[in-house]
Design goal:
The complex is a heterodimer of chains A (231) and B (388).
Chain A: E1 11-24, E2 27-40, E3 44-48, H1 55-63, E4 70-75, E5 78-79, H2 85-95, E6 96-99, H3 111-116, H4 126-139, H5 155-167, E7 173-177, H6 185-202, E8 205-209, H7 213-217, E9 221-226, E10 229-230
Chain B: H1 3-10, H2 15-42, H3 44-47, E1 53-58, E2 66-67, H4 70-75, E3 80-88, E4 103-106, H5 111-114, E5 118-120, H6 122-130, E6 134-138, H7 139-145, E7 152-157, E8 162-174, E9 184-187, H8 188-194, E10 202-203, E11 205-210, H9 216-227, E12 234-238, H10 239-248, H11 251-282, H12 284-292, H13 297-338, H14 350-377, H15 380-385
Parallel strand pairs in B: 4-9, 6-8
Antiparallel strand pairs in B: 1-11, 1-12, 2-10, 3-4, 3-11, 5-8, 6-9, 7-8
Helix pairs in contact in B: 1-13, 2-11, 2-13, 2-14, 11-14, 13-14
Classes of the chains: A alpha/beta (231), B alpha+beta (388).
Domain ABC transporter (chain A): 13-231
Protein name (chain A): Methionine ABC transporter ATP-binding protein
InterPro entries (chain A): AAA+_ATPase, ABC_transporter-like_ATP-bd, ABC_transpr_LolD-like, MacB-like_ATP-bd, P-loop_NTPase
Chain lengths: 231, 388
Amino acid sequence: MGEGQREGKKPIVELDGVGKTYFRDKEPVVVLDNISLDIEEGSYEALMGPSGSGKSTLLNLIAGLDRPSRGSARVAGQELSGMSDSALATFRSRTMGFIFQAYNLMPVLTAVENVELPLLLTKLSRGERKKRAQTALRVVGLEERMNHYPRQLSGGQEQRVAIARAIVNDPRIIVADEPTGDLDRKSADEILTLLEKLNKEFNKTILMVTHDPQAAERATVIHRLDKGNLS
Amino acid sequence: MSLLSIAARNLLRNKFRTIFTVLGAAVAVLAFVFIQTMLTSWSAGVEFAAKDRIATRHKVSMILPLPKRYADTIREVPGVKHASYFQWFGGVDPKDKNNFFANTAVESKTVFDIYDEMVVAPEDKARWLADRQGAIVGAVLAKKMGLKVGDRVTLQGTIFPGDWQFNVSGIYTASRRSIDQSQFFFHWDYLNESVPEPQRDQVAWISARLDDPTRSAEVSAAIDRIFDEKDVQTATMSERAMNLSFMAMFSAVLSALDAVSIIILVIMVMILGNTIAMGVRERTREYGVLRAVGFQPKHVGLFILGEALTIGVLAGVVGLGISYPLVELMFGRFLEENMGGMFPYFRIAPMTMVAAVLLAVTLSVVASLIPAYRAAKLSVTDALRRVA
């Protein structure tokens, strides 16, 4: 699964003067303003801040889901600001793993099929895809539930399947947007422990948006955003 | 697992909606098959017209009469093997005036030389020729009216007023299924002798059988040239053209049926488009996840097209599945027995089946184009924010 330490500590995310402006009825709304941030490979960092502070927007920019209006966003050695939609999609499939608050599993697919989903974009054989998906489920401790549908799983189990989906393509970075937001304390702790494991044992760079101070404490670095600025 | 198989499985998420959508589209397929079969059956006379038969009618209109003597002239034209004349009678059964069937006064000695696909037993034919009031009745009509050889029948004339008495001399069947078996033939001489002087010695059309079918156009032109200088000029045409000109009288009905067929297809597109759009809206967030993990907009589009394709195939198959028993076994048999004059062979043509399935699939895909395009164009972040 993991590649071990890649090349020591170096920035895998380099943001320089990044800004994001949306337009609401032709009125510009500045969501992020002149953000500069480096994140080292293999680190586990949290983004905190009040609602509307721009946390998710910043996470989206780093993940290649959106493009900055200004500045430079260099992630895993690639400048994202000038990339086409298609190039960004390829970048995400090779570099990023996503964990969402609401798990976002496909209800018609079993756990192992949900995990296999990102591998449909690869040239792997059907057997190899399934093998990798099973391995990812083993990492998150859900191998015995691989043929269960999401409706047959608890919230914590669903999120673990989502984590398996996020790591199945062996991404360098995992972005997690409120990964414990919908979970009880016990399940949340299990998920946070799992993220720690992925960070420490598999050297995954983890960037997590959270409102939960207990979740943020697990990270090695905490960034605070307020009104589009890093404090 | 593939994108297409996931798309197909997505349809099981809301089984109720999927079942009703497929059934709705299948009913549209059924209506399409029914109308197309009706049109095909109606035009069977054109489709199966004999290539070696031509028909001569009044040049102005087929409702105007020709002199009977023209038949003798036509028999002398080189290339003509047999000729026989016919007159519309337009009689109705006084006991059941809504029971429409073709009844025609024919030249008894020659009619079966022209229409040899009508099969009459030799003893029936002999009985008919010997009886001035004899009639030959199609098997379907005989069954419907409960007629058998020896029965006496009264028809009420509409073109030639009065009650006309006939004796059923024989029943004809057909060696080809496209032949209408609900006709009623009797002696032209009986009609001619019974009508007032001004109406005598007139016929509606003259059919001729040729030695060589490839000379049909040439012989037709030769016949018309003969009568060019006479008081009554003729228009001679192949049986196919004659049947077409007869059908042209119903062109408004046929066009209306075609229009109904198109309206049904438009309704089908709207039903499918609505269902697919609802499904897409509910799953927008999932498409956002697919895009986030690296799927391209085209994959999302194909995903939605895959769902539509599955619905289309199901609708086509289910539609044909219900069409066969309903159209062919129920309506078809009923129409053949009760309206055999118009629908002598009411069966679903293979081309209609292929067209129905192809249309169901194509229209499903067409209906999904706008939802697929919109979903593919949605930004990933917008899609992920969307709450169904």
